[in-house]
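My current task is to audit a protein record that another person submitted. I need someone to confirm that the token line plausibly describes how this chain folds. Take the sequence as given and treat only the tokens as open to question. This is what I was given:
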Amino acid sequence: MQTCSRCNAQAQDYESECPRCHASLAEFSATAVALRRLQTNARVANVRVVAEANACPACQQVAGTYAKDQAPHLPVPGCSCPNGCCCFYEPMLTEIYP
């Protein structure tokens, strides 16, 4: 399931538009907004895509570490997880304390 960052409505992974406010989920889903924040944060060196241990083969294949400008968008295309894509982003920081 995707969550719209504008109105918090839930949408299926295959939907490209929020069912309530009609915002583009490619731009305004919670995961798209999170990825943009990570990409603009100077303290983030890389982005790790994490998948659950029992995730589908498509999610397992995408799991890994990426340069922050090359991280794949979520949900994973072709995901067959029963409850929707379970992947999430995790930042890899250049420094932990300021």
About this structure: The chain has a mean pLDDT of 95.
